[in-house]
Amino acid sequence: MRSTAIDRRHALRLLAGGLATPFWGAAAGAGKGRVRYLSAGAVAAGGYRVSGFSEFGEALLDDALPGRGHAFAVRPDGRLAVHFARRPGEFALVLDIDRSAVSQAFEPPGHRRFQGHGTFEPSGQLLYATENDFDAGRGVVGIYDARNDFKRLGELPSRGVGPHDIRMLPDGRTLAVANGGIHTHPDYPRAKLNLPAMEPSLCFIDRETGDLHQQMRLGGDLRLLSIRHLAVGREGRVAVAMQYEGPRGDRVPLVALCRAGGPLRLLEAPPAVLRAMKQYCGDVCFDRTGRTFAVSAPRGNLVTIWDGTDGRFLHSSPLADCCGLAPGKGTGEFLVSSGQGGVFALDLGARGVRPFPTGFPEARRWDNHLTVADPVSQGA
Fold first, then answer.
1. Which sign, positive or negative, has the C-alpha torsion 154, 158, 160, 162?
2. Separation between Cα atoms, residue 95 and residue 74, nearest integer Å
3. What is the CATH number of the domain that holds 117?
4. pLDDT per position as a tens digit, 18-59
5. Looking at residue 267, what DSSP letter applies?
6. pTM to 2 decimal places
7. 8-state DSSP, 162
8. How far does Cα 377 stand from its chain's mean position?
């Protein structure tokens, strides 16, 4: 265990010291487009990489990671992003888009682990990251100063166990935190230690005071429905994607919609679609308008699309091992990444899926998330 930590820290020092491949490649210098998609994944030769490509399918980024990556927090101006390790994570990389470099790496304190996600407040000065206080069996939100080398300033309680995704609401003050309800410990990295007492929740927290504005729980028969991923659309509507930890034969809703101060509305899908989703949602994303959202179901090889205003199910498209989602260029358009390799464009209007080239010489087995690194996509 000790040698692994030393190797990881050495890799982080190399990345932060500028010895890694430059962040954006020569294609970015050509300036064909501003939209840049970010993701992480594995390659056939072994190891994990962080990757980026343009809206025109140009490969722009291809850097080694010290371990498996997960999601990105993009600063509201689109000029900087932070990439978090997969939970329980011990590294975060700062990606300076303007300077075309991995500019810094930082870690959580020794008694905390990153949980894979983070978000910036509107000025971009503070970063909020979901973390695990594993000894106490509770979740926290770490606060990092982006103006001062991402020094950790403190933390807020997440008001639950196993926080994962976190989003800033349009008011610039309220954090939406998905507490998955599952307790983990670094000594048993992927083990779920508390399923008999699992209690997921969606919490709205004041980032300045830490006060809990609202906590929505799924009790009774739905207490095994882990609240995992969030997306924020128009008028602060929050789309919720969930994963069920109960018996395989159960049929439970996997998608919800809410607004701060309102109820958590569990949405209905056609029975055949719900069965096909296999109790597991991987990612959720609003389109550019903030009115339509997509939810991926990688175990069911399916992408579903929903109305972000009234919660109606609109469409589903089959796609092998689909997980990462990002907004496309227009209404009802999304990009979808696959764990089997490849990125695809999904158009609700055309009701079709087509391959989207990314220009990498070596295929990527894309990980869970796909993110847009431009200011247009932030805070739809």
1. negative
2. 9
3. 2.130.10.10
4. 434 333 343 333 445 445 899 999 998 889 999 888 888 888
5. P
6. 0.90
7. S
8. 14
For the chain, the average pLDDT equals: 87
Phi, psi of 163 (to 5 degrees): -65, 145
Q: At CA 274, angle to CA 271 and CA 277, rounded to 5? A: 150
| Separation of alpha carbons 44 and 303, rounded Å | 26
What's the mean pLDDT in 108-124? 95
Q: Which of 276, 357, 283, 271 is nearest to 318 (CA)?
A: 276
**Residue entry with tokens 């008999």:** 196
Is pLDDT above 70 for 15?
A: no
Beta-bridge partner residues of 356: 343
Predicted confidence (pLDDT) at residue 169 exceeds the cutoff of 50: yes
d(CA 157, CA 215): 13
| Start-to-end Cα distance in the chain | 42
- The encoded tokens of residue 54 equal 């343009």
- Contact predicate 17/39, CB 8 Å: no
Q: Which element (helix H / strand E) includes 292?
A: strand 292-297
For residue 252, the one-letter residue type is: V
Structural domain boundaries enclosing 307: 2-377
Q: Is 272 exposed, middle or buried (0-12, 13-18, 19+ CB in 10 A)?
A: exposed
Number of domains in the chain: 1
Instruction: Tell me which H or E stretch contains 16.
Output: helix 2-16
Using one digit for the tens of pLDDT, what is the confidence trace for 255-268? 999 999 999 999 99
Of 82, 16, 69, nearest to 42 by C-alpha is 69
Indicate the burial class of 353 (C-beta count within 10 angstroms; 0-12, 13-18, 19 or more): middle
